[in-house]
Amino acid sequence: MTSPQLTSYKYTGYFFILWIMFQGTYSTAKYFQHQYEASLFTLNIEKRIALDISKLRLANPIFNTISHPPSVKRYIDQLNLYLTEQDSNVKLLKLQNVSIDIDGAYLTRNSTLTPTGQKIEVSIAVFKWPYLTTLTPIALFLALIFTYLNYKIYAKGNNADNNLSEPSAPDSPVKLSINLHDKTLNNVKFGKKVELSNKPFCFYVALLEYCIKEPNPLLNQSKDVPEDIIALANKYFYRLIEIGHTKRKRPDFSTNLDKTLSEIRATLDAVFLHQPHEKELFYPPKAQGEGSRSKLHNYALEHIDPSHLEIIGK
Amino acid sequence: MWCLGAYVNVNTPEPIPVIINESDSCHTHSKTNADSFVVLVEDQYQADLLLDALCSDPVIDRQFGVVEVRWSNRDEDIIQYIGKGLAHLALVKENLMNAFATDQTYGYKVIGAYQNYSAYLISVKEKPIINKQYLWGKKLGLLDYPSSRSGHIIPKGMLKSLDLSEQDVKITYANDHNELRKLLASGKVDIISSYWQEEDSKKFSQNYITRIQENVSGAKWYLKMDTQNTDLVCEMQKILLMLSPNMGSEYFNHMSLPDECLLIEVPQL
Question: Is the ipTM, as predicted for this complex, more than 0.95?
Answer without folding.
Answer: no
